[in-house]
Specification:
Helix content is 37%, strand content 13%. The chain is α/β, with parallel strands linked by helices. Helix 18 (545-562) runs antiparallel to helix 20 (583-600) and helix 20 packs antiparallel against helix 22. One of its GO terms (cellular component) is plasma membrane.
Length: 913
């Protein structure tokens, strides 16, 4: 079958909150099993008569932590959600980032979500108490929501489903995701599973089935193995068809070559394993992968550590792998480290194997030195990994098994990733190598500082190297959220230092969120001859391929008319480019190329103004002159002996500017005038009205950013006292003649912070546009939700209607409104806070219900109920009447105030009793 690539992943397992920690735990051979945390249950409640009562397990350190505000989920809903759903939401975001995709960029795309889980113990805890059930707990305990919430909150429109095949659930989810990709049903898929041990019930069931470990640990294939111990876990992989991943140059952890799923059928009891079915699922997976058993170097087994389960699994493996082969097939099981993660067990093994193939090393099996001799592993062509197994440089094949207690078996064949072609980067001798703009976005200023700090620490641990590939990767992955940060750096050491400094920047604490669609209003000022100098922009030419190409275009246009190449003069530092007849054409070429470079970077001017010769470049970029016409005019002006200027100007056919064009000839914006022969003849020999022209442009457009286009700062110095818009900025594309790509990067970074979405593709040469894995988003750990928050998660009782004579009647409220803060707005704020259980500072009149608070139809109905309880007269308002007002707190209050006014005035109308 065609191959599928694992392009991203994220996970959290006992003792390992992220993939890096997971790999470290595996390589250390550590065990993450420990006592039952207090927040789960009291072990004494199930001690004594309960057979197999758990005393140990593998538990996540902070399963109650959830950054609900990031996903615009109300605190009340977050408290009602199954923690598995919360963990999967954050895991999905981080896995997509790890795959080199900005999750918000996937909104509306057919991305599939396939989640395996063994039901919801959260539902067992909360739904039986009917007196406390509400809409949020009903939805939050529904198993299907484990996948559906990911699709909903990220706006993904592909297949979205939950699989429950007991212990094989998450690997079956991967199988379904692979098939969905190969059928063309989706082009990107998230697959994996989650498991949380919230009650002792299943542990007691295991005890009655004879599966629970009396010693409280899993010893896969061990001589003292006596059963399983339960554990938490969550993990997701991001999958793409291999050809697509390679075409996009995505880093690949490992390749899925084949998958298979089958069932035990009628065996010796529904919970008893069937070795022949296990044999068949391995053979089916190998056939689909197009491989033979002797090619499989190691298998991550189901390996629960139960006496019967281990024996039958080894028998099945031996039937397949007990053939003549150069080396025995190595086997292992992560359950020795974590315990049995049940619905997440398969994804734990898959991620372990993918990391092993990436690192070219298979960790030893915990307790592997205690191998059970009765299993006769060597006779069956198998070896239990007692020490890490180094993998060679050639392609390596591995298998992952996961078997469900009800008989559903799954196996996945993995291969090491194809080795990428080495990136050949040209040697640069001028200036810094690999300069780029590193970007980060977050949902709050505090989150931005947190992620800047985390990124600085992660990049600081890297060896010194070019920053550009990391910057390019951040532009693709770390964008899309409201609060922005951007720093320019040439190498990783500089980048880490600047990120640390940005995290401490006081201005960040007062940062303003950038709303979608609100970018900067930028105008271009094209310098005149005063900015010309020898060797101007030579460094930029060496460092920026877009500028190189555009300066070449200008040179090619000017050359036939000048008889000399201005580009050669600039690069040679020839004084003729700074003074004399060739200075104007040289300055035009620089202005044309600089402005064109910015436009290709995504900086499009709202208006233009040119000083002296700068007006030619302004006219070209406004669409009033073509490049050839500008070249002929400039050549005639520079070399009058080759033609009286006026006659050349008469051959130029002008067009109306496509942008507001501030004329320094008239000192105002052009209205009906043409940039014709008369204009250019007068422009060449008339005083420049620069300040008047800029005042007109500034009044018409109110620009937020004024950018000088020239080889150095000249015009901006003359605007130091200009009446700019509040916060208006004066910027330069080249602040000094020797400026290079870093200056352009600084400019792009500043405009990005103001809301520009640059064309990042043009910011980097091809050799730097390579994806690097970055530290995934660091979510807030400040908010926690667990079953003990049940009482606080219930809606507070509605306030009783005001007693007769109390100052809460509509008429009295209107009087209060005239005297102090609008009481209706205050009432709406209180109602919104009550419905969502928000903190006081989270809800203001400007707060938007959908975008800021994540309101849905259920919460809107609850809001109406709460408002009616406090304003009984609202019962006359239908939902249809209220819907248009449900934009923000202020719009609801405005609607209610208008409605109140009508109600107060209504009794005095004719015909009313």
């Amino acid at each position: 079958m065609p191959a599928v690539a694992i392009v991203g992943l994220d996970c959290a397992f006992p003792g390992a909150p992220d993939p890096e920690a997971y790999w470290d735990l595996l390589m250390r051979g550590a065990e993450a099993v420990g006592p039952i945390p207090e927040q789960r249950w009291d072990p004494r409640e199930v001690a004594g008569g309960s057979r197999g009562a758990m005393t140990q397990g593998g538990f996540l350190a902070a399963p109650d932590v959830f950054d609900n505000a990031f996903f615009a989920i109300a605190p009340r809903e977050a408290a009602a959600m199954d923690p598995q759903q919360r963990l999967l939401l954050q895991c999905a975001w981080r896995a997509l980032e790890d795959a080199g995709r900005a999750p918000r960029s996937l909104t509306g795309q057919g991305v599939g979500v396939f989640v395996g889980t063994m039901g919801s113990e959260w539902a067992q805890l909360h739904l039986p108490d009917h007196t406390r059930v509400n809409a949020q707990f009903g939805v939050g305990s529904t198993v299907a929501m484990a996948a559906n919430r990911i699709s909903h909150h990220l706006g993904l429109t592909g297949p979205s489903l939950v699989v429950d095949t007991a212990c094989s659930s998450s690997l079956v989810a991967v199988h379904l995701a692979v098939n969905s990709l190969l059928s063309g049903e989706c082009d990107l898929a998230l697959a994996g599973g989650a498991n949380l041990v919230l009650t002792p019930s299943l542990g007691v069931v295991y005890g009655h089935l004879g599966l629970a470990s009396a010693q409280g640990r899993c010893l896969p294939f061990g001589a003292e193995a006596d059963g399983i111990v339960r554990s938490d876990g969550v993990g997701l992989v991001a999958l793409r068809r291999l050809d697509d991943a390679l075409a996009d140059q995505q880093p690949v952890y490992a390749v899925i070559r084949g998958t298979a799923v089958n069932q035990d059928g009628r065996s010796n009891g529904i919970t008893a394993p069937n070795p022949w079915a296990q044999q068949a699922v391995l053979e089916s997976a190998y056939r689909r992968a197009g491989v033979t058993p002797d090619q499989i170097r190691f298998v991550e087994t189901h390996g629960t550590g139960t006496v019967l389960g281990d024996m039958l699994e080894v028998r099945a493996l031996g039937l397949v792998h007990g053939i003549e082969r150069e080396l025995p097939c190595a086997i292992g099981s992560v359950k020795g480290n974590l315990g049995h993660a049940e619905g997440a067990a398969g994804i734990a093994g898959l991620i372990k194997t993918a990391l092993s193939l990436r690192h070219r090393m298979v960790p030893a099996t915990r307790f592997g030195h205690q191998e059970n001799p009765q299993l006769r592993l060597a006779d069956r062509g198998l070896s239990l990994l007692k020490a890490p197994l180094r993998l060679g440089g050639q392609e390596v094949l591995a298998g992952v098994s996961s078997f469900g207690i009800g008989g559903t078996n799954a196996h996945v064949v993995l291969a090491s990733a194809p080795r990428p072609e080495p990136v050949r980067r040209p040697r640069r001798v001028d200036g810094p190598v690999g300069c780029g703009v590193f970007t980060l976005t977050a949902d709050t200023p505090e989150a931005l500082r947190r992620n800047l700090t985390a990124a600085a620490e992660a990049i600081g641990r890297r060896p010194r190297g070019e920053a550009a590939p990391l910057c390019w990767s951040s532009n693709r992955v770390k964008t899309g959220l409201a609060y922005r940060a951007a720093v320019v750096a040439g190498d990783t050491v500089e980048l880490a230092e600047k990120l640390r400094a940005a995290a401490e920047d006081e201005l960040l604490r007062a940062g303003v969120a950038v709303r979608p669609g609100r970018g900067p209003v930028t105008v271009f000022l094209f310098s005149g001859e005063g900015a010309a100098c020898a060797g101007m922009t030579a460094r930029l030419y060496a460092e920026h391929e877009v500028y190189r190409r555009l300066l070449g275009e200008a040179d090619a246009a000017l050359g036939p008319y000048l008889g000399v190449g201005v580009r050669d003069l600039l690069l040679a530092g020839d004084e003729r480019a700074a003074r004399g007849p060739l200075a104007r054409p040289a300055q035009f070429a620089v202005g044309y190329a600089l402005a064109g470079t910015l436009r290709e970077l995504g900086v499009h001017p709202a208006g233009v103004l040119g000083h002296g010769v700068g007006e030619y470049a302004a006219a070209v970029h406004a669409g009033a002159l073509d490049l050839d016409a500008a070249a002929r005019l400039l050549a005639a002006h520079a070399l009058p002996e080759r033609g009286d200027f006026a006659s050349v100007a008469r051959t130029v056919t002008p067009a109306a500017p496509a942008l507001p064009f501030a004329s320094t000839l008239y000192g105002r914006l052009l209205v009906d005038e043409q940039l014709d022969a008369a204009y250019w003849s007068a422009q060449a020999f008339t005083a420049v009205h620069f300040h008047e022209a800029f005042a007109a442009l500034n009044a018409a457009l109110t620009p937020s950013h004024v950018v000088e286009i020239g080889a150095r700062i000249d015009l901006l110095d003359q605007l130091a006292g200009a009446d700019l818009a509040e916060g208006g900025r004066l910027l330069s594309a080249s602040p000094e003649p020797g400026a290079g790509a870093a200056a352009l990067a600084d400019l792009v970074a500043e405009l990005y912070l103001a809301g520009l979405d640059p064309a990042w593709e043009a910011c980097y040469p091809a050799e730097h546009r390579t994806l690097e894995r970055l530290l995934p988003y660091a979510f807030s750990a400040e908010t926690r939700y667990w079953k003990r928050s049940w009482a606080s998660s219930q809606p507070a009782p509605a306030a009783a209607p005001a007693a007769a004579g109390a100052p809460r009647t509509i008429a009295q409220s209107l009087v209060m409104a005239a005297q102090q803060v609008d009481p209706v707005t205050r009432l709406v704020i209180e109602a919104v806070r009550e419905v969502g259980a928000y903190e006081a500072d989270r809800v203001t009149p400007a707060t938007r219900l959908y975008q800021d608070l994540g309101f849905d139809s259920v919460m809107l109905m609850q809001l109406k109920d709460v408002l009616e309880a406090r304003m009984p007269q609202m019962a006359d308002i239908s939902v249809q009447q209220l819907l248009p007002a449900l934009h923000s707190v202020a719009t609801i209050a405005e609607f209610l105030n208008e409605w109140i006014t009508v109600q107060v005035a209504a009794p005095s109308l004719p015909g009313r009793s």
